[in-house]
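The pair is quoted verbatim as follows:
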Amino acid sequence: MAERVFKIVYDRKSCIGAAACAAVAPDFWKMSEDGKADLVKFELDKDGNQVLFVKESEMTSEGKKAIDVNRDAAEVCPVQAIHVYDANTNEK
């Protein structure tokens, strides 16, 4: 059975710079000079959103599951600019 892959989709235009994502998932989120967050490594989708694919087994430098800390980042975002989807089913 193939490993599950998740798609993190970030609507940067909606970001208000609260930095909550960077606080809970520093391996994946950083604050930029303009005061908004950015994914550390990302691709841009056709709508201009930052996208990152994360494998279920991927771990952070702190030994936490990468998908868990990114879900936490999505939950703490005050403007709900971060969305987590199953990359195969597109289920949120």
About this structure: The chain is about 15% helix and 25% strand. The first helix runs from residue 20 to 24. Helices lie at 20-24, 66-76.
